[in-house]
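Re: Re: ligand-bound prediction request (bumping)

Still looking for help on this. To restate: I need the protein modeled with calcium ion bound, output as structure tokens. Inputs repeated here so nobody has to scroll up.
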Amino acid sequence: MSTRNTRCMVQNSAGGRAFALDPFARLERFLILGADGPTYYAAQRTLALENAACVTTCLALDGARTVKTIADVSNAGRAPKNDAALFALAMACGAPADAMRRAALNALPRVCRTGTHLFQFAETVGRFRRWGRGLRRAVAAWYLDLGTDALVRQVLKYGQRQGWSHRDVLRLSHAAPRTPAQQAVFRWLTAKEITATDAGLEALSEACRAFEALRARSVTEAEVIASVRRHKFTHEMLPTEWKRSPAVWAALLEDMPLTAMLRGLAQMTSVGLLTPGSEAAAFVGRKLTDAAALGRARIHPLAVLSALRVYRSGRGLAGKLTWTSERGLCDALERCFDLSFRAITPSGKRHLLALDVSGSMSCGEVGGSPGLTPAMASAAMAMATLRVERHCELMGFSHQLVDLPIRREHTLTQVMKIVQDVPMGATDCALPMLEAARTGRAVDVFVVYTDNETWFGKVHPHLALRQYREKTGIAAKLAVVGLTATQFTIADPDDPGSLDFVGFDAAAPAVMADFARAR
Ligand code: CA
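Reply:
Sorry for the wait, this slipped through. Here it is.
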């Protein structure tokens, strides 16, 4: 171990030694994993403060790169939730340097893609700056730069959230309409009046009137269905009583966005629309396995996994809803999960996937998905690689090797059950490398899925990796997949053959294959 490495190692939350993650790698971890759940060792509040400090550090180091990272991670759909990106962008909008604030405000439309995002941003940004001219102009531009159809859709679909409505935001932004359509929409939002005096606004006023009629509950089922078909209304726009009607759901399904389809599987099953062998079930199965459409809709693998877990269980997380899951749709969801990661080109390298199943990995939740522990999430994530790489072994470890009978034919449900049932223990992240060296296994890439809270063994992981390379003559690489938004990593920052990845980054398995392939 070089003196330099010794010096840049820090104490992790478990009392062991780890490297401190590079601030920009840490920023990515925060943007993707968020800090909205505690870990075994760190409280949620501590994590949130640490991550806020990390954003400040990155802004001070390189403001332009920070804003670009926030916008890129958010816009590429790499994170299961947009919350951390919205928070970080709001912080950047309050940065001390003019140029940095401007860059952050310019990135607003890339990070705030829906009305809900905009409300969340409006709520947060007030903590970091006042509503001065720059902010007002950027928020006004958010509305004014939308095309008419997109504007109508945003205002109808995302009415209000967290105590904010379009009316509030428009007032704060002082947005002045540039077109008759914008004028009509703004008037409808602020005064609930709609006029169709100008040619071309009839469709707009008709949609607004149909929406008002829905809200006033003065419509029949046939009229609801007609409105859904004609104005492409989504289920969020409908009053609850219509959500018990299979006919209304059938109409909604015709143009349903994929995200809504994933979330609505249980409801569409329980109202009796998605029955085994039905046309609707076949339609949903086809949609959920359309790779191109999944990419366009930025469907995140964690959203698919959550949908699968809920749908498979046959009962809602809250409420009394129950249903019988259908085999065909479960299979479609399994396929959908694989497809929702960015397309992976297999590297053909010999992989050893090592899952940390120590006690800390069974605490907390990943990406705000209830009940999804880091151990379960890492097992699901490992499947994305296991299913495509031909030479791939999988093992579990805590302070000892743990037998994990996981094979590529297994379903995600089976895999998560296996991980949940294993005995837990202390953490020694060097074990995968030590074991491979001991048994003379040929490995090109070790992939360790962990919270980086290693503390048990006598040999540090980066030394175990070096010993493995020396003993076998294989220039083995180490990919460390971090499942919690902490600042620690077992990957040696000075070793080009070691690299950090973020757990449940939709791009991670594809980038990992590139890393495995690179010379
Ligand atoms: Ca542990």
